[in-house]
Design brief:
The complex is a heterodimer. By secondary structure, chain A is an all-beta fold. Chain A contains no helices and 11 strands. The chains are: A mainly beta, B mainly beta.
Amino acid sequence: QKEVEQDPGPLSVPEGAIVSLNCTYSNSAFQYFMWYRQYSRKGPELLMYTYSSGNKEDGRFTAQVDKSSKYISLFIRDSQPSDSATYLCAMSLISSGSARQLTFGSGTQLTVLP
Amino acid sequence: EAQVTQNPRYLITVTGKKLTVTCSQNMNHEYMSWYRQDPGLGLRQIYYSMNVEVTDKGDVPEGYKVSRKEKRNFPLILESPSPNQTSLYFCASRTTDTQYFGPGTRLTVL
């Protein structure tokens, strides 16, 4: 069993829809949670990160962490065609300091149709 | 402009021929990593470095070497490449809250 599970999709939604992307994990020691966006033929870029359970909002993006269920989500409101990309969740054991070993999900491919 | 550069971007080689993929960052970050990305497996960390001369194994270090002699550079070395190392490789550097990935190196080992 992988430490981090992510539905690979593909997920296709109409423009303006609310998108929900999810990851589950098995290691309860994970403390630091991130979401990355990867456009085709590009390196991943960090979208959001959070240390704690609850919600964190940044513009149209909301990251949600439920440590009791070992489940994290990324919500995208008012989705745009420019949001079409692969979304990767990532997590690590260490919540502070500069040395982190990250474990990634396999990514969910999202297409937002105009 | 803050960036991570990798070279080469594309490489086709043969089994057993030593190769090095270079990585350089211009942000004075202490922490750097190498990842490989394979379909269905996502990004897997190969090695990471917390600072000059400080490196540690990630999830899939077998068949790879790294060195960190300068803060800005973190080359990935394949001493004897094999076909199962055909993959897309990313170098990354980070601060506490921000991580930058390079553009990727697509390696094919025949």
